[in-house]
C-alpha cells in the first residue's frame, strides 16, 4: 500500500529557481520539512511516497522533486541477528555510536538495533539516503548523523521499544 502526498510551488521566471516547500512533516511524520529541505534542492513540485509492506516488515519513503529522486528513508524489521545487512564499502562510512551498529557517509546513514517490546523482539535496520549533498552550514556527515538520530528516536517510539542504553561515547 502506498500513500502519495504531493505539493507544488511555482517559481516565477523573474525570481529564479525556488525550493519546494512540501508538507510540514514527511516520511510517516519522522522528519520536519526543515530537516529535509537542505537535501531537496531547487524545483517546482515535491512528491512524497510512503509505503509499508502488508505485514509491516518493511517501509519506504521516497521524496522526489520535479520527478527526480532526492531522499529515501527505509526501515526493515526482521527476526534475524541484529546488525547492518550491508557494510557500504564504496561510501567509506564512519562508525557512529547509535543503536547496536551505525554508520554515516556523505549521502546517508544507517543504524541497526534490537527492539524489545511485550509482543517480542525485532531487529530493525533504518537507512536514509540522499541523492544530493546536504546544503547548509553543517558538513554532510554531521547533517546525516542528526537525521539518523531523529529517525532512530522516531522508530523506537513508534515501535514502542523498551528504552535502550546509550552506547559508550553516544549522546
The rough form would be described as globular
Number of helices: 2
Count of domain modules: 1
Strand order of the largest sheet: 1-4-5-6-10-9-8-7
Stretches with pLDDT under 50, minimum 5 residues: 1-14
The number of E-state strands comes to 10
Largest sheet: 8 strands, antiparallel
End-to-end span in angstroms?
Answer: 36 Å
Helix content: 10-25%
Topology pattern, helix = H, strand = E: EEEHEEEEEEEH
Structural class estimated from helices and strands: alpha+beta
The average pLDDT score comes to 81
Strand portion: 35-45%
Write the layout of secondary structure elements.
Elements: E1 2-8, E2 25-26, E3 31-32, H1 33-40, E4 45-52, E5 58-65, E6 68-78, E7 94-95, E8 101-105, E9 108-117, E10 120-130, H2 140-159
Antiparallel strand pairs: 1-4, 2-3, 4-5, 5-6, 6-10, 7-8, 8-9, 9-10
Task: Report what the structure shows.
- This protein is of the alpha+beta class.
- It is 16% helix and 39% strand.
- The strands form two sheets. An eight-stranded antiparallel beta sheet has the order 1-4-5-6-10-9-8-7. A two-stranded antiparallel sheet has the order 2-3.
Tell me briefly what this model is:
With 171 residues, this protein is of the alpha+beta class. It has one domain (2-159).
List keywords for this structure.
8-stranded antiparallel beta sheet, disordered N terminus, 171 residues, two-stranded antiparallel sheet, 39% strand, alpha+beta, globular
